[in-house]
Please model this.
Amino acid sequence: MILTLTVFASVSAQSSHQQLRSGDEQYDLEHYKEAEQHYREAAELKYGDPLAQYNLGNALYQQGRWEDAATRFEQAVSAAPDDASFKADALHNLGNAQLQLHKYKDAVKSYENSLRLRPGDADTKRNLQMAKKKLKEEQQQQQKEQNKQDQQQQNPNQPPPPRDKQEQQQQKDQQQKEQNQPQQPNQGQQQQEQPANDKQQKLKKEEARRLLETAIGPEDQKNARKYREQRIQPRSNGKDKDW
Model:
């Protein structure tokens, strides 16, 4: 029974090694989907093999499947032997996947752990600085959004401020335009002013009539009345005079 298990384990190891080699060949040709299949079979044949998990993570990463790649790199780190160089590589690649996923805080941690195992790695140092920069920008943006929310909660009736200078200028132009326009009275003012205007017009007509009566004598008024009566009569179609 023990012999059978040993033979089976040996065959599995050989098959896993063969799948790893086939995966490497496809990976070098940039056939990442085919490489993934070989590495996945190798990982299934030799469960817990850190090299199979590591290579599978690389094939997944090259296909833009960063979440799956990060999972494989984490498994490679967990199963890695006492080999500082291999574990540093796995942590470096884990940081790359996390950086692509915008998990900047996790990426910083992975790069720092990689540098603890291999302090002089220039690529890891460069990627660490990039992750720290992205993390700082993310934190600043989050703080900005938090300040905006706090301001709106403190002043719920106050409209949000303009987002940029262009919107500020548009708002300023609109306010200036409104100031230059004459104020329109409201409906109540119009209703109140209308009777007053009618009363003033009546007073003017009455005053004009009184002035006309006092300035023109009775005889002039009689002649003027006679003239008006003649003007409203229709004109004759013949040669007769119209007076």
